[in-house]
Amino acid sequence: MTTTPHQDAPTREGGEPGDPREVVLSLSGIHKRFGAVQALTDVRLEVAAGEVVALVGDNGAGKSTLVKVIAGVYQPDSGDIELAGRRVKVGGPRQAQDLGIATVFQDLALCDNLDVVANLFLGQERVKGGAIDEVAMEVEAWRLLRSLSAKIPSVRIPIAALSGGQRQTVAIARSLVGKPKVVMLDEPTAALGVAQTAEVLNLVERLRDNGLGVILISHNMADVQAVADRIVVLRLGRNEAEFYTDEVTTTDLVAAITGASDNVVASRAARGKEQAHG
Amino acid sequence: MAESTVVKTSADQLDERLIANASDPLGILRAFWARLRGGDLGSLPVVFGLVVISIVFYVKEPVFLSSRNLVTITQFAAPVGIIALGIVLVLLLGEIDLSVGSVSGASAAVMAVQIVNSGRPVIVGIVAGMLVGVVVGLVYAFLYTKLGVPSFVFSLAGLLAFQGVLLYVLGSDGTINLPSDSWLLDFARFKFLTGTASYVLVVLIGLAFLASRLLSQRSRTKAELSAPSTVSILVKAGLLTGGLAYLTYYLNIGRGWSYLWLFFAALVVAMDFALRRTRWGRHVFAVGGNEEAARRSGIKVTRIYLSVFVGCSTLAAVGGILGAAQLTSVSQATGTTDTNLTAIAAAVIGGTSLFGGRGSAYSAMLGILVLVSISSGLNLIGVDSSVRFMVTGGVLLLAVAIDSVSRRARSSSGRG
Ligand SMILES: Nc1ncnc2c1ncn2[C@@H]1O[C@H](COP(=O)(O)OP(=O)(O)OP(=O)(O)O)[C@@H](O)[C@H]1O
Ligand SMILES: [Mg+2]
């Protein structure tokens, strides 16, 4: 198949009747520069309520930078961020939280010296009578972790004692504390086992069914195609292409990501075919 | 906190890999041993050190463990202990304040000038002295959070500058004697809790401990989480009350608990609560552990630094004021000699890590007890202060070495 990727936001004929999805998060004209590196150039992105948008692109394409701009960790040099149609300024992570934006960062951002419960509720501790309500937090922690099939022996051990995948599960569970409207997951399944990956994909679908907007970053095309409604491709800090998942093939995706149809992935595939035939 | 002994398996005890499981007392011991080997030493080395110190000095000079001497040790440990409590705060953030001694001296001098030279009421002098601490902390926080000056540098500058302030405030007099009839001196020197009142306090502490543990047990059981058994709580409360009662009995042979020590102990308990059970304390540990993660969690990191630097300098001021009251005067040497390093050493010896994110309020109390005991013991067996400095230096080095080694053990056994 050789359909050219839509260069602009795809408009779907007919759409889904009776489903005027309201846009929860919309970015336009985002520029971000680090010293000599122009990490993001005129980037735009829209997420509707109950929609999973996958953000894909090569290493260094600017995906994490975009996520951090939305999460208030970085300030964009220019550009607009709109939340539910209202222009907002995400001045810092605290504001992002208050606006209902939850993020799982690629580098996780957990405190090694604190236990699992403390990390899950960091910045959003439950308080009863002036003191931290450990019991309520622990109960909620078990509920969240069970819902992700987390294999964590105890929530009272420090994060440093967990494996990479267990930490990732904690980071994902963290994003569910509070009542977010938009959840951003930056390579959430990179370190996860088979069952946990499936569980995270289930979670993404559950979040979508609950009417949240989800932004999923992943290098795994199978995962992306399994859960995303729309796929946004970034390349060298620019919007490269945008697809509806059910209208795109892996080949097209890879071509858009690498920026060429004669890319290294395609040539490997071709070589494999030749060897099989010859 | 040892979560142990449950009847049915609670929500948090399901994983079969948990070692300290169910109602197996051996399991608790085993988990404890594993924790030690993993480098999670807590205050164990310093308690062990206190025991060794007591035995060694007792053998050399039995007066060391006399009621009289213990009363003196606790009374004189309190002011520097309060300063060490502030140091615990900055160490938890992985920062340092080298100027606490000078700040304590300058605050004491400001207080003395207000009371003696300007003839103001004692309370005005105290507030003025404490304000010095607050202002110093505000300046430090500004330097750190806005200008990015390392705490080592600005507190070193403060060490010199506030020694200068001390000399300047004292002026030509050199020494200011505090009025001997003021309640402050009375409080710091002659007030002791003894007799029935002291036992009432012990019982109240025991009951408070029991009540808080039982309440926590009840709410955990209600939430279907594992909870310590009533027996273990009763045993702990009994041991605590019994131990305190015996100490009280022993100190009452002498003059009893000094108000100064009780004040210090109350500060330690309050700080421990603030650090372990309030959002502020949780955020202090978070910033000390991983500042970037704390910031991304929406914690206002700047405010944490502000509160900690102000808290440290203010506690230094309080310690300086009480120390001056205890010695009845402020002189050019107040807070300058070894106050600084004693306070910092006490916090580290007590088990608060120099690397941030690990420690407890009680380390100030335990550490200062070790240091004051050593100096009292060496005095009793009649060694020179030269030896005292060397021994104190050695103990500090030992404490830092233990801290560093246990940090390495933690990172190799995965306890951060
Ligand atoms: N803090 C920073 N300082 C300087 N340059 C940065 C910083 N963060 C990112 N960059 C640069 O911005 C570009 C985009 O980086 P980003 O982390 O967003 O990539 P990414 O798409 O998430 O890649 P990956 O798939 O490897 O996670 C890179 O060229 C990187 O070097
Ligand atoms: Mg990235």
List keywords for this structure.
heterodimer; A: 278 residues; alpha/beta; Rossmann fold; 4-stranded antiparallel beta sheet; disordered N terminus; B: 416 residues; mainly alpha; ABC transporter involved in vitamin B12 uptake, BtuC; 2 domains; two-stranded antiparallel sheet; 16 helices; binds adenosine-5'-triphosphate; binds magnesium ion
Could you walk me through the main structural features you see in this protein, from its secondary elements to its overall organization?
The complex is a heterodimer of chains A (278) and B (416). Chain A has a domain of 155 residues: 3-Layer(aba) Sandwich (Rossmann fold). Chain A is an alpha/beta fold. Chain A has 9 helices and 12 strands. Chain B has 2 domains: 37 residues, no CATH class; 318 residues, ABC transporter involved in vitamin B12 uptake, BtuC. With 416 residues, chain B is mainly alpha-helical. A two-stranded antiparallel sheet of chain B has the order 1-4. In chain B, strands 2-3 form a two-stranded antiparallel ribbon. Chains A and B meet through helix 2, strand 8 and helix 4 of A and helix 8, helix 11 and helix 12 of B. Bound molecules: adenosine-5'-triphosphate and magnesium ion. Magnesium ion (MG) binds next to helix 1 of chain A.
What's the number of helices of chain B? 16
Number of structural domains of chain B: 2
Binned, the helix content of chain A reads: 25-40%
Q: Which ligands, by name, code or SMILES, are bound? A: adenosine-5'-triphosphate, magnesium ion
Rg of chain A, Cα atoms, Å: 20 Å
Order of helices and strands of chain A: EEEHEEHEHEEHHEHEHEEHH
- CATH 2nd-level architecture of the domain at 23-109 and 180-247 in chain A: 3-Layer(aba) Sandwich
Which series of helices and strands of chain B comes N to C? Answer: HHHHHHEHEHHEHHHHEHHH
Topology:
The complex is a heterodimer of chains A (278) and B (416).
Chain A: E1 23-34, E2 37-48, E3 51-56, H1 63-70, E4 78-83, E5 86-88, H2 93-98, E6 101-104, H3 116-120, E7 127-128, E8 131-132, H4 134-147, H5 164-174, E9 182-186, H6 194-209, E10 213-217, H7 221-227, E11 230-235, E12 238-244, H8 250-258, H9 264-277
Parallel strand pairs in A: 3-10, 3-11, 6-9, 9-10
Antiparallel strand pairs in A: 1-2, 1-4, 4-5, 7-8, 11-12
Chain B: H1 25-37, H2 44-60, H3 67-92, H4 100-117, H5 122-145, H6 151-170, E1 175-177, H7 183-189, E2 192-193, H8 195-222, H9 230-253, E3 257-258, H10 259-277, H11 279-289, H12 291-296, H13 301-327, E4 329-331, H14 339-349, H15 362-380, H16 385-413
Antiparallel strand pairs in B: 1-4, 2-3
Bound molecules: adenosine-5'-triphosphate and magnesium ion.
